[in-house]
Structure formats: C-alpha cells, structure tokens
UniProtKB/TrEMBL annotation:
Quaternary data: Associates with stalled 50S ribosomal subunits. Binds to RqcH, 23S rRNA and the P-site tRNA. Does not require RqcH for association with 50S subunits.
Protein function: Key component of the ribosome quality control system (RQC), a ribosome-associated complex that mediates the extraction of incompletely synthesized nascent chains from stalled ribosomes and their subsequent degradation. RqcH recruits Ala-charged tRNA, and with RqcP directs the elongation of stalled nascent chains on 50S ribosomal subunits, leading to non-templated C-terminal alanine extensions (Ala tail). The Ala tail promotes nascent chain degradation. RqcP is associated with the translocation-like movement of the peptidyl-tRNA from the A-site into the P-site.
Protein family per UniProt: Belongs to the RqcP family.
CDD domains: S4
Listed name of the protein: RQC P-site tRNA stabilizing factor
rRNA-binding keyword on record: yes
Alphabetic keyword roster: Protein biosynthesis, RNA-binding, rRNA-binding, tRNA-binding
RNA-binding S4 domain segment(s): 1-64
Annotated gene: rqcP
Any Pfam family hit: S4
Organism (species): Facklamia lactis
Length: 86
C-alpha cells in the first residue's frame, strides 16, 4: 500500500493530499529511511512523521483499503510521541 493512502485510511492524517504533501517534504520516514508519498508500506514497518514541533512514531499492524472510523486505530500502534525543543 502507498504511504499516502495508509496515512489517510488509518486516519493519522485526514486527507490524502495533505499526506502526500507531508511525505514529499521529507517529513516522513519508514524504518529510518526518508519516504516519499509513493513508498510502499508493509505490516511491521515503523513510520515516523514530523508534525510541526512533534514527532509521532507508529508501527503498522494491519493494511486495509478502507476502514470505518472506529476500526482505523487497529491499523497501527503508537510507539512514541515526542516534542521537539527549540
């Protein structure tokens, strides 16, 4: 599954266009490697996303093409959420 689609379907980011922009600005890594919006996501991958002054790290548990809002949280596990100090 594409990175931008995973971020949207899992509801980590609400819109796919926003997910694409974030990834294309080199603010997302998959297993420590900078990822583009078209990068493939697999179960077991660790994804880190930089949102302004915080970094969210999640582990991919499940890949689904579509999901209900209440089932979206099953797609990933939050590993870390850190604030970046300036």
């Amino acid at each position: 599954m594409r990175l931008d689609k995973f971020l949207k379907v899992s509801r980590i980011i609400k819109r796919r266009t926003i997910a694409k922009e974030v990834a294309d600005q080199s603010r997302v890594t998959i297993n420590g490697q900078v990822a583009k919006s078209s990068s493939a996501v697999h179960e077991g991958d660790e994804i880190s996303i930089r949102f302004g002054n915080r970094i969210l790290t999640v582990k991919v548990n499940l890949l689904q093409d579509s999901t209900k809002k209440e089932d979206a949280v099953e797609m990933y596990t939050v590993l870390e959420e850190n604030k970046i100090e300036d």
